[in-house]
Amino acid sequence: MINLTDKEKATLMLGVYFKTQAAIEKYLGPERLKEWTVYVAKQFSDNIKEKSSFQEEIEAKVIRELAEVLTVYGSDYTFTEDDKKITLDVNRCGIFNYRENAQKKE
């Protein structure tokens, strides 16, 4: 078995994820991409709803999990949370960085 650092594991997983996503996008075509995005978002949302019972808890979990995903992508964002409010401000999603780098390599 190959021993990988956490950074190497994350890079490998992102590469697999993005290549899979690119294949899905190519297969579906631009006209069906919105349909795919809605489907994936619904699966994500349904999964959180199954684990939560209160609307406020669901909303907070969605924002926290989105922040975790943004971290994996190396995104530029600010996350704050206090007793009354959770805020997630995204300056630049790391997916754009990955796609720009992939396009440069093509």
Would you give an account of this structure?
By secondary structure, this protein is of the alpha+beta class. It has one domain. It is built from 4 helices and 2 strands, in the order H-H-H-E-E-H. The chain has a two-stranded antiparallel ribbon with strand order 1-2. The longest helix is centred in the first third of the chain and has 23 residues. The radius of gyration is 16 Å and the shape is globular.
What's the layout of helices and strands?
Elements: H1 6-28, H2 30-51, H3 55-72, E1 76-81, E2 86-92, H4 94-105
Antiparallel strand pairs: 1-2
Quickly count the domains. 1
Number of helices: 4
Query: What's the total number of strands?
Result: 2
Overall morphology:
globular
Question: What is the straight-line distance between the termini?
Answer: 31 Å
Q: Provide the structure class.
A: alpha+beta
Estimated radius of gyration = 16 Å
Q: Can you summarize the main beta sheet?
A: 2 strands, antiparallel
State the share of residues found in helices, binned by percent.
over 70%
Strand content: 5-15%
- Uncertain regions: pLDDT < 50 for 5+ in a row? none
Kindly list the characteristics that best describe this protein.
alpha+beta, 2 strands, 71% helix, single chain, 106 residues
Question: Short description, anyone?
Answer:
This protein is of the alpha+beta class and 106 residues long.
